[in-house]
Write a structure and sequence with these properties.
- Among the domains are: about 90 residues; about 70 residues; about 160 residues, Lysozyme.
- It is about 65% helix and about 0% strand.
- It is built from 35 helices and no strands.
- α9 packs antiparallel against α10, α12 runs antiparallel to α13 and α19 crosses α20.
- The chain is flat.
């Protein structure tokens, strides 16, 4: 009796699934034709009205007719699909059409704030025409203060606002300077001619001269007197001169510093330019210049260069000072900052402070947290918190229009469209709902997209979802054949492609383990495998067979050192050997963080971290990072001399 009841309950679900499959088959050819420019005949598609992607057919039926379409039809679509990707697209298309046709009243009625600069320009122009000047400066600045040309729709509004003195002399000079700094001198000259007063117009010519020949900056007669604009032009010239040679620019800066009354902020920006030029040119004054930049000009870029330069020079006193406070920039890993603060204290013999700093850092599940654990002899913090949404929350997110449409596009094999719907959902919903969406996406089978989603929103605690055990049979098979641990193969796959089977890199690497066609061909020949075309590298079995063999080869070349093998896998063995020859017996953690290629530096850290995570996920003994890194730069067979 229970079985009969279960079957009775299941029948509607089976029926609905069958109907959906039929609708998919009917929708797909119509959709493909619509994308190519054949508007769908909706009168014959009424049976698809309740299909989640029906809105796309309506969109492609309306879009070609916008020029003659009654506004009521557009507004009907916007009302029927509110807060949706397609509503945003149609509104944007509609606003462009009404602006083109000069239908200003319709434009104003249907305008909502847009990211598109052209539409912002039209909205600004209409406000000016209507005399709506409240808050106009706030609307003007983002469009004006850019170093590139804006849409011609802005020209009239800019001219009108200049006539009303809303566009001030200060803003005009600021844009001139922005244009030159952006490498767009023709725009800077245009701004000077079109908008500047006769008294200010020569600044465009001065900037042009300084741009062309920065060495002549301090010799120009018009720049001999002190003023804020003179100082700005001189600062621009010194920055360009520094990129040609920091020593020459430094001499010029000494003269300029005596001649002009630079504010601390103005001086700081010039000091910053000189410091960054010293970094680029490996100038011997680099540390001193990085240390002497006024605090007002320090940003995340300068902070990162300070850290690297300090590590390269092993300037522990400076590093301890520079890392004493949290980093300013959001792009700098604060855990990296904390680790090198602790290491600096350790190198300076301030051991009690160093131990306390390492202990605090050892609670973090991160490459630097694991290194800190090794310092204070703690187990790694493998904290795992599954997202585990409640049933009602899961149901609510799954019912969201964008998620339903993304799911359908995924099932139709249209991943780009599914991505667009997901990205729209992410930009309009809270972090918790995005985490739940990642769980749903993984349940569809799109695990690699779920990994990317969680990375984008910095949700790092669901280890099962972020570090899946996909392709386990294949990975275990080839790991065993190559004498590798599966965790190492998983680490490379996770770092190279994050499980995107058909991943293509800009360098031409393919598949899960991102094998270059040339490497693939040579390795396949060595293995006696057939590799008819590079496209075969996107096949799971073949990619892992070849990638794992190449990993075995580089491990053998570097005496089994996984950090060096990972560096070689990413940048090539010859580069790694060259780096080791100039390592000066650097401590292993320092060597990793000063690898000349920023991409490889981050890659090696991830590889070590991911290997530990996968050892944990697979129930294997975790190899401490300090053990993997031991004697890294004294591996004589890798090309370095003994330390």
């Amino acid at each position: 009796m229970k079985i009969i009841w279960f079957v009775v309950c299941l029948l509607p679900l089976i029926s609905h699934a069958g109907e959906l499959e039929v609708q998919r088959q009917q929708f797909l050819p119509v959709y493909r034709a619509a994308v190519k420019g054949a508007p769908p005949a909706l009168a014959r598609l009424d049976h698809l009205r309740d299909y989640p992607l029906y809105a796309y057919l309506r969109y492609y039926q309306l879009r070609p007719r916008l020029r003659s379409l009654p506004s009521a039809e557009v507004r009907g679509f916007l009302a029927e699909y509110p807060s949706s990707l397609l509503a945003e697209r149609l509104r944007t298309d509609w606003l462009r059409e009404t602006a083109r046709a000069g239908r200003r009243d319709l434009f104003v009625e249907d305008y909502v704030p847009q990211a598109d600069a052209e539409l912002q320009c039209h909205a600004l122009a209409i406000r000016v025409r209507k005399g709506q000047f409240d808050g106009i400066l706030e609307a003007l600045k983002p469009l004006w203060l850019v170093g590139k040309s804006q849409d011609k729709a802005c020209d009239w509004a800019f001219a009108a606002l200049r006539a009303r003195k809303v566009l001030s002399d200060e803003l005009i000079f600021a844009r001139m300077l922005l244009a030159f700094r952006a490498g767009n001198p023709s725009l800077g000259q245009h701004v000077a001619k079109r908008y500047a007063t006769p008294a200010d117009r020569p600044f465009g010519g001065l900037l042009t001269q300084v741009h062309a020949n920065p060495a002549k900056t301090l010799q120009l007669p018009a720049l001999q007197h002190d003023s804020p604009r003179t100082r700005a032009i001189v600062g621009y010239g010194l920055g360009r001169l520094a990129r040609q040679g920091v020593a020459r620019a430094s001499t010029a800066w000494e003269v300029a510093g005596q001649r002009y009354a630079f504010t601390a902020q103005e001086a700081g920006m010039i000091q910053r330019e000189l410091a960054l030029a010293a970094v680029a040119q490996s100038h011997p004054t680099v540390l001193a210049r990085l240390a002497n930049v006024d605090p007002s000009a320090i940003d995340d870029t300068l902070e990162r260069h300070r850290l690297r330069a300090g590590l390269t020079a092993r300037a522990w006193e400076k590093l301890a000072s520079w890392t004493a406070e949290p980093p300013l920039g959001a792009t700098t890993n604060p855990l990296r900052w904390r680790y090198w603060h602790a290491r600096s204290l350790e190198e300076l013999g301030r051991n009690d402070e160093a131990v306390r700093a390492f202990q605090a850092l050892a609670t973090e599940r991160d490459y630097y947290g694991f290194l800190a654990c090794d310092k204070v002899h703690r187990n790694y913090a493998m904290t795992h918190h599954a997202i585990a949404p409640k049933v009602e929350d899961r149901t609510r997110v799954a019912a969201h229009g964008a998620i339903r449409r993304a799911a359908e596009f995924y099932r139709l094999g249209l991943r780009a469209q599914a991505n667009s719907e997901l990205n729209f959902f992410f930009s309009h919903n809270p972090k918790r709902d995005i985490e739940i969406a990642a769980v749903l996406v993984a349940d569809w089978g799109w695990v690699e997209r779920a990994i990317a989603i969680l990375g984008q929103i910095q949700s790092y605690d669901d280890l099962d979802l972020r570090f899946p055990l996909l392709h386990k049979d294949v990975i275990f098979k080839f790991a065993k054949q190559r004498g590798l641990t599966p965790a190492l193969v998983y680490s490379i796959i996770r770092g190279e492609s994050a499980f995107v089977v058909d991943a293509h890199s800009s360098a031409g690497a393919l598949g899960l383990m991102q094998v270059l066609p040339s490497t693939g061909a040579a390795t396949a020949k060595h293995l006696g495998l057939s590799l008819a075309t590079p496209a075969e590298l996107t096949k799971i079995d073949k990619n892992i067979a070849i990638g794992s063999e190449y990993l075995r080869q580089v491990l053998r070349q570097f005496n089994g050192s996984f950090p060096l093998a990972a560096a070689a896998y990413n940048a090539g063995p010859s580069r790694v050997r060259a780096w080791l020859k100039t390592s000066n017996c650097a401590p292993p953690d320092l060597w990793v963080d000063t690898i000349p290629f920023a991409e490889t530096e981050a890659y090696v850290r991830r590889a070590l971290f991911y290997a530990a995570i996968y050892e944990h996920r697979l129930g294997e003994t975790i190899n401490p990072l300090s053990i993997r890194l031991a004697n890294l730069t004294s591996t004589s067979s890798a090309g370095a001399g003994p330390c």
